[in-house]
Design goal:
alpha+beta; seven-stranded antiparallel sheet; serine protease; S41 family peptidase; Peptidase_S41A; Tail-specific_protease; PDZ_sf
Length: 494
């Protein structure tokens, strides 16, 4: 089973301008070799190829035409499938190691522009003041409109210490913002931690990378060295776009009973139908070493809260879903992004230096829930601020992306970004202008404070907003009321 793990990867939301995640096939499998091909359509494609070669205004390189045809074919499937040229494939592999050269922003597309989903903490983009929701309209002198997301990301990548000028449209600003940023090799510290106060600790996973499980084990060991009688821990997965599957399994396994089911996948081919367990062979980078074996037994029982929001996607949803299904932790915050699909990265022969990132399966929580285009519904809804959730409700979700996969269990369960009338949106933006950027884990972190209150048995200020929730038959269900003093039963669709 351990070798099967190497065939699957979960790619975080959108594309990261640098770090993203992959596990690769060694080469493309020769599947369906005898399947009939659509000869008429292939002849038509050949005719168009010949027409371009003979009649286009200027000569076009054969390789360029064919590469663009492959890229368009794959990109037409869903928001997360893509053709990776030599450079993109190399960058993707580097990203899983937690280092890359770039600006450090997770991005998507909106209205033809590059939209910043989240700056990576401590990156050049983060230090330059780029914010979630910013629209990048120009890269140096090149307008973004008309570029694909891959083309825009390539322009933002480059050599260390080179500069790029971004033109940014921000809703609360009347004029474009122009920022010149120096590209750097970014070593993403995927795990952060600290003892917040005696007896209570905060553990943040910003992305799931190959070193994440080892780094988390070291952080937890350091926490217990400082606080041997730990009373509660907050696992912070807010704005975590996802990453490699072994990282999600390892983080879950640290807190779940040994050999528990963490996640399962189901797709068209036999290798996509798998179940992954809280076992060393499913998460350890070194098969002879289990980084979790050094953790104290108390870690399996310490009271937990997991914080999520609309920026929590993919691998972070796997962790939240598993801990929720086993009732191991109280999930708190706002509804997650809803990326419940698996991407396999398949190297293409003959050189094997290009690849296709292809959606090959959906994943399911231990109780069999599909969260595709729905997300994880918190046990306790808590806004980002005491007076509301800021601009988070307006963020794009999986269900807002063009050509997204539907939730095959309940298509009516898809949750889209909130829409407001123009005046309400203007009021919300005006209020956000007065806020300083939120520093997760700080004394001003309202959701973290509520998580601590819950761990201590104190009242929690819950959100007035309620997610659209449905029962297993797909019928509208009434959300359970919660006074903040105790979490409702977890592991059920409410």
């Amino acid at each position: 089973m351990g070798s099967k793990l190497k065939n699957i990867s979960l790619i975080g939301l959108g594309m990261v301008a640098g770090a993203t995640a992959m596990i690769q096939f060694d080469a493309i499998a020769q599947k369906n070799a005898t399947a009939s091909l659509p000869l008429e359509e292939l002849r038509q494609m050949a005719d168009v190829f010949g027409l371009i070669k003979s009649d286009y205004v200027e000569p076009v390189d054969d390789k360029k035409l064919l590469t663009e045809a492959i890229s368009g074919m794959v990109a037409s499937l869903d928001p997360h499938s893509a053709y990776l040229d030599k450079k993109a494939y190399k960058e993707l592999r580097e990203g899983t190691m937690g280092k890359f050269v770039g600006l450090g922003i997770e991005v998507g597309m909106e209205d033809g522009y590059v939209k910043v989903i989240s700056p990576i903490e401590d990156s050049p983009a983060f230090r330059a003041g780029i914010k979630s929701g910013d629209l990048i309209t120009r890269l140096d002198s090149t307008p973004v409109k008309g570029l694909t997301l891959d083309e825009a990301v390539k322009k933002m990548r480059g050599e260390p210490n080179t500069k790029i000028t971004l033109t940014i449209a921000r809703k609360e600003e009347d004029k474009p913002i122009i920022l010149t940023i120096t590209r750097q090799e970014i070593r993403v510290q995927s795990v952060k931690s600290k003892v917040i106060e005696p007896g209570y600790a905060w553990l943040r996973v910003t992305q799931f990378q190959e070193p994440t499980v080892d780094d988390m084990a070291k952080k937890l060991a350091a926490i217990y060295a400082q606080e041997p009688n730990l009373k509660g821990i907050v696992l912070d997965l807010r704005n975590d776009p996802g990453g490699v599957l072994p990282g999600a399994i390892g983080v879950s396994a640290a807190f779940l009973p040994k050999d528990s089911v963490v996640v399962s996948t189901n797709g068209q081919i036999p290798s996509s139908k798998q179940t992954f367990y809280a076992k060393r062979e499913f998460y350890a980078s070194n098969p002879l070493n289990d980084p979790l074996s050094r953790l104290p037994d108390a870690i399996k029982k310490v009271p937990m809260v997991v914080l999520i929001n609309s920026g929590s996607a993919s691998a972070s949803e796997i962790v939240a879903g598993a801990l929720q299904d086993y009732k191991r932790a109280t999930i708190m915050g706002t509804q997650s992004f809803g990326k419940g699909s698996v991407q396999s990265v398949i190297a293409l022969p003959p050189e094997k230096n290009t690849a296709v990132k292809l959606t090959t399966a959906r994943y399911f929580t231990p109780n069999g829930r599909s969260i595709q285009a729905r997300g994880i519904v918190p046990d306790i809804m808590v806004d980002e601020y005491p007076d509301g959730d800021g601009l988070n409700g307006l963020r794009l979700r999986e269900a807002d992306l063009s050509k997204h996969l539907t939730n095959e269990t309940d298509k009516s369960a898809e949750v889209k970004a909130q829409t407001l009338d123009e005046q309400a949106e203007e009021r919300l933006i005006a209020a956000e202008k007065k806020r300083k950027p939120l520093d997760f884990g700080s004394k001003d972190d309202f959701q973290l404070a509520q998580a601590l209150n819950h761990l201590k048995g104190l009242p929690v200020k819950v959100s007035n907003a309620k997610p659209e929730v449905r029962n297993e038959e797909g019928k509208q269900a009434s959300p359970a009321k919660d006074d903040g003093k105790a979490a409702p039963e977890k592991g059920e669709t409410k």
